[in-house]
Specification:
- With about 80 residues, the protein is of the alpha+beta class.
- Helices cover about 25% and strands about 40% of the residues.
- It is built from two helices and four strands; from the N terminus they run βαββαβ.
- β2 and β3 form a beta hairpin.
- The chain is globular and about 40 Å long.
- The protein starts with a strand and ends in a 5-residue tail after the last strand.
- This is AsnC family transcriptional regulator.
Amino acid sequence: MKPIFVQLQCAPGKTYEVADALYATELISELYSTSGDYDLLLKVYVENEEDIGKFINDNIAVIPGIVRSLTTLTFRAF
């Protein structure tokens, strides 16, 4: 499994609804509220063979209230 970090920008007033919906999926390892351009930062683990774009589109981007997302892939550097 590999960790993926996703930042989400939510529609005004929808951050808590989005966070609740994310928790309801039971796919999220960690979820944080953030400042700046994005409202939430989440960490999910996906199987090594899984298509990350499809996973995000099918499980996260479909949640109402999400305006924009930024996915960061991680690599084992050391």
